[in-house]
Design goal:
CATH superfamily of the largest domain: NAD(P)-binding Rossmann-like Domain
Largest sheet: 7 strands, parallel
Shape: elongated
Number of strands: 12
Radius of gyration: 22 Å
Helix content: 25-40%
CATH topology of the largest domain: Rossmann fold
Number of helices: 13
Distance between the termini: 28 Å
Bound molecules: NADP nicotinamide-adenine-dinucleotide phosphate
Length: about 325
């Protein structure tokens, strides 16, 4: 039987590329010199797209591939995929939820603790010989007794909350609607929650509804002793406002795993002693990335076997 043709939008980890190569005829979108012409040349044969939360799939791409049957994405965030276009075309979109929740939540908790204890600065302090030359480092801040406001109490947000329980903090949260059975205090208004919080953790999806949900007003409410932790998407935070707030001391600290224009990070954030900057590594462990890759492969295999998909995002 002829292997179905699959368009891979951006490079995936080597083991996943190999598994895809074994099962499908692969076309590597990122290697097309002229994207439009390259796409047109393979358009009729392509039956599946393998992509990531970062590379996504545009409306133009979805409509150019006349025989497209499935989009299988590596990552839980689908804001870079034009879901309405896929739905219009009757194309199911799958993602990789749950398998990454634990590591992403751990990254958020790790950033929160690291920011509160100036962990990275402390490491630099030792390496720079300052312990010897300047003596003990300035004191840092305890998390115990503080309030953590979580924006988006979904799979990752709820796991962050659960894990934070052992640190003696008060968890509060904001989302589009209250959830029955959740005991943490709910805030309808993000600014109000930021005003009451010492740490603001962003764990909602990207996309239009959350664009700049953390803006200058929210940062002002968080205040000079407050810390911002972003594990969601760069688009959820007004990055210029963060730069301005850090410079003016409007907020105290920031731990950021995601940025507006990755992999570019504003120089002011790099230069600041009060930021912890990670290169979008929330889910980046061997174990989790392998599980995510397996789910991308499983969804494609299920589709081409005519079986129900494991993790379909859009209702068709
Ligand atoms: P999820 O289970 O769908 O949770 C998202 C939560 O955000 C839901 O509870 C949802 O509320 C809430 N939400 C939706 N719109 C909102 C709004 N306008 N304001 C506030 N909250 C809103 O997704 P997840 O698996 O937890 O993943 C969350 C996001 O994390 C992903 O979309 C992705 O962008 C990001 N992520 C980042 C990394 C990384 O490496 N840094 C890795 C994985 C995921 P309802 O429950 O009421 O719908």
């Amino acid at each position: 039987m002829r292997k179905p043709a699959v368009l891979v939008v951006g490079q995936l980890p080597p083991k996943i590329m190999q598994a895809l190569e074994d099962a499908y005829v692969l076309h590597r979108y990122w290697t097309f010199e002229d994207k439009k012409k390259g796409l047109a040349a393979v358009a009729d044969s392509i039956r599946g797209i393998a992509t990531t939360g970062h590379y996504g799939a545009s409306r133009e791409m979805i409509f150019a591939l006349r025989n497209l049957e499935i989009i299988s994405s590596f990552g839980v965030g689908t804001d870079a995929i034009d879901i309405p276009a896929a739905t219009e075309r009757g194309v199911p979109v799958t993602n990789t939820p749950d398998v990454l929740t634990d590591d992403v939540a751990n990254t958020a908790v790790m950033m929160l603790l690291a920011v509160s204890r100036d962990l990275v600065q402390a490491d630099r302090y030792v390496r720079a010989g300052k312990w010897v030359s300047d003596g003990n480092m300035p004191l840092t801040r305890a998390v115990r007794g503080k309030t953590v406001g979580i924006i988006g109490l979904g799979r990752i947000g709820a796991d962050i909350a659960r894990k934070l329980d052992v640190f003696g903090v008060t968890v509060v949260w904001h989302g589009p609607r209250p959830k029955p059975g959740v005991s943490y205090r709910y805030y309808e208004d993000v600014v109000q929650m930021a005003a009451d919080a010492d740490y603001l953790v962003v764990a909602c999806p990207g996309g239009e509804s959350t664009h700049h949900i953390v803006n200058a007003d929210v940062l002002k409410a968080l205040g000079p002793e407050g810390s911002l932790i972003n594990i969601s998407r760069g688009s959820c935070v007004d990055e210029d406002a963060v730069v301005a707030a850090m410079a003016a001391g409007t907020i105290g600290w920031a731990g950021l795993d995601v940025f507006a224009n990755e992999p570019q990070v504003p120089a002011a954030l790099i230069d600041s002693e009060r930021t912890l900057l990670l290169p979008h590594v929330g889910s980046a462990t061997e174990e989790t990335r392998a599980a995510m890759g397996n789910l991308v492969i499983e969804n494609l295999a299920l589709h081409f076997a005519g079986k129900p998909l494991a993790t379909q995002v859009n209702a068709l």
